[in-house]
Amino acid sequence: MTDSPALEGRVAIVTGGARGIGSAISEMLTAEGASVIVADSGVDIAGNDPDPSVAKAFASGLGERAAAYTEDMGVSAAAVQAVEMAVDTFGGIDIVVNNAAILRDAFVFKGSPDDWDAVIRNNLSGPFYLVAAATAVMREQARAGRGGGDAYTWGRLINLVSTAGFIGNYGQAPYAAAKGGLISLMRIAALDMARTGVTSNAVAPFARTRVTEIIQPANDEQEIYKERALKVDPQHVARMTAWLCTDGAQDVTGQIFGVRGRETMLFSQARPVVTAIADGDTWTMDTLTDTVNTHFRDHFADMRTDLEVFNTDPAL
């Protein structure tokens, strides 16, 4: 006798789910018994030239428990429609994986407002639209007793983020700002959905993707980073993402994980590391200077980029 798949009966939406890390996640969720809406418009890495055939062909290859959704998820109506498709096609919505991302890099002094708007719309607004639409249904499912237990234990929200969002990297203001926003969205959703039993977490992937493939190294260090990144199979990220959807992760929420090959990380989140209180009614400029130099400076975050922080050999 074999155990039932860990996610049997669950229904997922995976954005950007037909390529790269998204395709690995879609495959992993399906293998573990979930039904999956593969939400992927087929755009290129800059968000241009949509191709619906990408998602349709991929979903067809996954079998009868997968269906393609090819509308632009950066439009709120599309997010609502994707959730409706999940409910109509497979009977509910339990798992949301916000993975889709586009990239339009430039130094801040050269950045285009149009590029900023496009990246934020796709990488941050789209995930919010989907979370908002899906959680409304999840709350109703919780009241209806979906899953058959005493409480609704199937609800999962997972945002694929990036260390660029909290460590930083040159020339990635729109991308990093959106990924940092996804961490905040994850935290708020974890708080807002706690009473419903829906968990919300973030995963920072280190793996072979379209993003790593198009890196144009500016120096030897970046060349080495790219070579290492291209060796890392996205299946490791997919497995962690799927685990967060299982019963074993029911009490895991509001956290940021990193996956780099066989190495799994839990990232710290911003909290005060040192405090100082002014003598008298307020600070003066001189006392602030002295306090920063004597109390705070030793605790400053360094100015290394995420490429420099993680420029070591991955555990393959």
Task: Please explain how this structure is put together.
With 316 residues, the chain is an alpha/beta fold. It has one domain: 3-Layer(aba) Sandwich (Rossmann fold), CATH 3.40.50. It is built from ten helices and eight strands. An eight-stranded mixed beta sheet has the order 3-2-1-4-5-6-7-8, sandwiched between helices. The mean pLDDT is 95.
The biggest sheet, with number of strands, parallel, antiparallel or mixed sense and barrel status, is: 8 strands, mixed
Strand neighbour order, sheet with most strands = 3-2-1-4-5-6-7-8
Shape: globular
Tally of extended strands? 8
Determine the mean pLDDT: 95
Helical proportion? Answer: 40-55%
Overall tally of domains: 1
Which residues form runs of ≥5 with pLDDT under 50? Answer: none
CATH architecture: 3-Layer(aba) Sandwich
Tell me the layout of helices and strands.
Blueprint lengths: L10 E5 L4 H12 L3 E5 L13 H10 L3 E4 L6 H15 L4 E4 L14 H32 L11 E5 L12 H20 L6 E8 L3 H4 L6 H10 L5 H9 L12 E5 L2 E4 L18 H12 L9 H4 L7
Parallel strand pairs: 1-2, 1-4, 2-3, 4-5, 5-6, 6-7
Antiparallel strand pairs: 7-8
Helix pairs in contact: 1-8, 3-4, 4-5
Short structural summary:
The protein has 316 residues and is α/β, with parallel strands linked by helices. The chain has ten helices and eight strands.
Features:
alpha/beta; Rossmann fold; eight-stranded mixed beta sheet; 10 helices; globular
